Amino acid sequence: MADKRVKKVVLAYSGGLDTSIILKWLQTTYGCEVITFTADLGQGEELEPARKKAELLGIKREHIFVEDLRDEFVRDYVFPMFRANAVYEGQYLLGTSIARPLIAKKQIEIAEKLGADAVAHGATGKGNDQVRFELAYYALKPDVTVIAPWREWDLLSRTKLIEFAEQNQIPIAKDKRGDAPFSVDANLLHSSSEGKVLEDPAEEVPDYVFSRTLSPEEAPDKPTVIRIAFEKGDPVAIDGVKMGPAALLAKLNELGRANGIGRLDLVENRFVGMKSRGMYETPGGTILLPAHRAIESITLDRGVAHLKDELMPKYAELIYNGFWFAPEREMLQMMIDKSQEFVTGEVTLKLYKGGIHIIGRSSPYTLYDQELVTFEEGKVAYDHHDAMGFIKLNALRLRTLAQRKKKLGIK
Amino acid sequence: MADKRVKKVVLAYSGGLDTSIILKWLQTTYGCEVITFTADLGQGEELEPARKKAELLGIKREHIFVEDLRDEFVRDYVFPMFRANAVYEGQYLLGTSIARPLIAKKQIEIAEKLGADAVAHGATGKGNDQVRFELAYYALKPDVTVIAPWREWDLLSRTKLIEFAEQNQIPIAKDKRGDAPFSVDANLLHSSSEGKVLEDPAEEVPDYVFSRTLSPEEAPDKPTVIRIAFEKGDPVAIDGVKMGPAALLAKLNELGRANGIGRLDLVENRFVGMKSRGMYETPGGTILLPAHRAIESITLDRGVAHLKDELMPKYAELIYNGFWFAPEREMLQMMIDKSQEFVTGEVTLKLYKGGIHIIGRSSPYTLYDQELVTFEEGKVAYDHHDAMGFIKLNALRLRTLAQRKKKLGIK
Amino acid sequence: MADKRVKKVVLAYSGGLDTSIILKWLQTTYGCEVITFTADLGQGEELEPARKKAELLGIKREHIFVEDLRDEFVRDYVFPMFRANAVYEGQYLLGTSIARPLIAKKQIEIAEKLGADAVAHGATGKGNDQVRFELAYYALKPDVTVIAPWREWDLLSRTKLIEFAEQNQIPIAKDKRGDAPFSVDANLLHSSSEGKVLEDPAEEVPDYVFSRTLSPEEAPDKPTVIRIAFEKGDPVAIDGVKMGPAALLAKLNELGRANGIGRLDLVENRFVGMKSRGMYETPGGTILLPAHRAIESITLDRGVAHLKDELMPKYAELIYNGFWFAPEREMLQMMIDKSQEFVTGEVTLKLYKGGIHIIGRSSPYTLYDQELVTFEEGKVAYDHHDAMGFIKLNALRLRTLAQRKKKLGIK
Amino acid sequence: MADKRVKKVVLAYSGGLDTSIILKWLQTTYGCEVITFTADLGQGEELEPARKKAELLGIKREHIFVEDLRDEFVRDYVFPMFRANAVYEGQYLLGTSIARPLIAKKQIEIAEKLGADAVAHGATGKGNDQVRFELAYYALKPDVTVIAPWREWDLLSRTKLIEFAEQNQIPIAKDKRGDAPFSVDANLLHSSSEGKVLEDPAEEVPDYVFSRTLSPEEAPDKPTVIRIAFEKGDPVAIDGVKMGPAALLAKLNELGRANGIGRLDLVENRFVGMKSRGMYETPGGTILLPAHRAIESITLDRGVAHLKDELMPKYAELIYNGFWFAPEREMLQMMIDKSQEFVTGEVTLKLYKGGIHIIGRSSPYTLYDQELVTFEEGKVAYDHHDAMGFIKLNALRLRTLAQRKKKLGIK
Fold first, then answer.
1. Of B216, B314, B367, which has the smallest distance from its Cβ to A310's Cβ?
2. How large is the C-alpha radius of gyration of chain B?
3. Which residues bind L-aspartate (chains A, B, C, D) (predicted)?
């Protein structure tokens, strides 16, 4: 358990029942001053109620921080990650993982400003989020005290939590008295659900779990065709309309939602060592990934593209495991960003009932050279006679191996 | 150019106009005996016409080889590759790449049996297939002479080819007189199209190019739900019906075709150095990949899964570049195969208008442990207090770095 | 702390003061039966005194296990690791890391046989060895209880330890009363020293720390020339004399010792998160590594050799971190072992005052082909005209990039 | 063969017999103007004789370029490569590989300035150097014509070369009439020898081949102790004396030479497909590598260090294969350079009869923290109780695997 002699703690506060209980528990257990930090990362909830609730729970006005981080989140976290085409375990778009470092960073900034010695979060003791929050805290403020109530307290059943809330005059919405049928995390990139009704990986995810996408069956019977413009690896416009990072991702989410795009039912390997089953909805991101790959396909050199592909799993793992602020992630990022210098141009996509179909791409920086590739003999660089030498030298070591086998009479 | 003193050459012969011209050209240019090899890899054409045409062109009966390789192709080439979740450049399922080594191997076997000193193929001088054929030839018979007519002859326009065909009494189907609007390769795994009308990557692929799939729009309005059973990483049954490798892949192709699944419009980087745009239809394979990942998701250990993911790009590149018979591909394969020991179980998928949605997976060897993952404190291995130590030691180096920054006054 | 309800514990027992104290502490704290396991891994100490001491401390005869593991250690742990050319952080030959899994495995085997429910080791709470022991325990017996006294007890100073020893009638050698000036680990592969007098990495290691090697200055003024024969990647004979694994490594140690070979002063990164400075003496291993590389240099294909080199850091890290029994280490090992099929032949080395100089290598399976490499034009596979095509296709993407720069006016 | 319509060619000209013959051959074969470029990369030959010889062979004064590139070579090529700890195939310090791109770059600069349309080099058709020169040419000037006389002409024996020289009034030194017993390449980083007397890899390299180092036996009987100071990964001073890049490397060479350091007898895998045996002398570089690793060992974070180690083989392969100007090498370099930000400090080494022994290292930016590592319980970040949680979560997946085995009754 964290050191009891804590004076001021910055709590990542959503305004919901659980973090309100944490708020009170921190006050009563540590006898410390609580500073709340509530961020809008696009989770789709208003922030003002959180402010009011914090006040109600006795937090001083100057200790209540509420911030709209949507643009910062998309510009400095989501887009850099998509430059790398990052997917964890071949499929997961890292929607939860990428939000934690930003929240942690803001908590630490507030702690530094107000001289707080501790930070607290509401992540459980079994998941990845505790790791992501805390690695970020420690990386940014090595002497900080971290309080993780779910690992410390004895409020280990719903009944006990509700009791504690009642004893402490914390308002309880009716539908929060019982256990939730699953738990949710949401931000502008995605919404994830896990636990309870989702726990048997053989059972289909029930319809009521989805919140952010129509099902493919509900989506329109006609495809939607869109054009995404990229500059240096980042999307900057849709159908010719320039947009800021958050607005653009919101627009992609809307397009994805309407077309039944972005549902993912996945069993993944947690950093803390067990497998878990999650259901993710990432409508905009699911469109963005192949679109980004498509613009890269004509603007990136092969050597660069393959190096990126080889390093991607490690990069994605670093983000998943919570090492956003580790120097090796920063090194990889620098390399990835460098590669995006000419990743500029337009991609045309067809969205249809859950599917994304690239149908065209163009760029002022294209490396696709019709003269080279055409079956007519090009005038320039490619002479098909060169292929023979190319093949023969590539074959040389294989022939030497075959010669050895022959000599040894090995089949 | 290959050594003129060639006595017997084994030609990969499709029975079509182009390889018939090659057949004659080999006879007239090299004055050598030609042996034809025609294989059924599931390309969807009958083989007997090829046999007859070879006879017509003067090939001795005992020099005409026709073989059904569908099961061998799927069992020994396609399935091993899918065990690795191989995709080239994030998307291409390697449908053409994986067929070449098998054809080459059979040509070499015939050459060894009949004492032929040369082999020939009909791949052009600009593509990857020449490399794939020839690396395989050399790896299996280091002293073989390779004849690649498209790199050697002067029949460089359609007019010249047709002239040569006419002069040599080669029958010409009416629709073969003009240039084809695109070129096609097909086998049981996929059908690919490239060239001419597909050359501008900004232009949508015209409808008439697709041959193996309905468009998502044409697909049924109701989803199809299927169960695929896996044993040691390979699919063995669909909806409880056991099938051999080729039959199973054919069934998946049928399911994919009907549901508009498996179209891919891609710009890729060729081994010979330029970018090219291709259109691929891989209906069954496109279903198989996520199904395989799904069964792996509950049966593979994280360390193994991540190692596989890190090595996959290299493995896929080896296959794409034609190094199937290289020892490093075999080393990687051995490792991948070892990993599949317990990749056994069932996956349920929903197919709908181009989309594949995993909705359940189960296995007698599952590593997914509901007791571990549940939010209720498990009785067994997981104690959430352990998380603190885990995080603190993972954070230690980051804290040390932060301490250094602090000491140096670096932001 | 481990569960108090432990009945029987298998202790890794050296017979020294520290593990004798642990023995007593286990009896008094847990009230459990203690089984001792003492192994000869070539650390250079006799085992019978350990047996007697265990008896003296009240351990039943049938609970005292003493085993000579030298051959098993070298054959199944050291040699497989050297097949991979494993070095951690570019330099460390993993001498301590590789011994822990074997000791742990034997403890678990005894636990299974005698129905013990716990195991204990004498590694401290700050090092890597606790991790290596315990990961192996858990991997082999998932329900085992692990007792790590150094993390549990309050005997945190030398004074307290000695007091406890005196109170419990544990004999104390005179030179063990004070703190040791550094701590040592030893086995047939190496001897390591760390702590106290070695803690300042700017200070030279004092002469008295070295125990297993002459200094280069003390070594003879004449070089020693030896021939090492390899079979499938493992050394099997020195100067024509066949030897078993342990005898061979002992002989190499002797040769290394005499010639001042194998001292390494290193600052390394521990798995538990901090840097530490160690001094290693690995006389035989330091000879073996370049000798193995030399025999590989003529018998391994380039593709295989480079794949091994790329995977080696990960393999070494797995061993260093204690993941010997993890499935990904086993996968890598299988691949590495496969690569060694033809790594058979002889290497001649000159040993001289700390240096190892390869002066020759030969193999019945050599891939080094003098005809290919000679400047005279070979008759066989290499035609220098092929080089042009090889270069031009390798250059193609670079030329396309340069063309883009030119078009854009970029320097 | 290159296009005959060449007007001006920039030749990499050493002033020796072979490149003088090339010079004449270019004039007579291509009827083109020849521009000579002679560079001092520290090969240890004077440049003025080359200038005079070029004049004698009819080259206009304004077409003779002679340049001292030593500082540029070391600063912009050698040091960046050592930041990566680059070694090819575990041993080779890339002394030849790293020099070619610089020479090629200068030739292209001259070609651009003087409007030359071609470049020529004197590398043979069997080696790596032709690839390195030409990939660099093409990467920097995609439309350049490359002339590689050794692949084109018919002067394939020493006799024919001498005849050609005599017919063209090229002065021939007496000792150049016969075949050289081996061929040499030299620059400030190293000297390499290969061919003829070195071709049997079982035979020891004869003494007369070495030119740049004393043998370990000849070296002094007393060790030399030196201190190398690093700034951001590059050596900047020896024993407190600041030096420019070339001067510093020259000083290290001198120290290495005197102490018998830097000889390497190696069989390596060439990019063009065969194995070759070379003898390398890299006295300064052989000291620099472990010194650089030593300063990194206290200043680099583990995550960064391990990422560097994993990428190093690829980076070294790129340089070896001639891809210095490829964008993926530049991406890797950028990442490596970023990592060196705090690689500043001093390393103390003992040089003795061929051996290099690190005996101390210190840095104002050290991450080595004596309080963390000491066996006394630190006050700060490390609590040894954390180790238990760390181990248990790392063990979790291994325990789950073991549980599965148990359930299945697998040993």
1. B314
2. 25
3. 124, 128-129
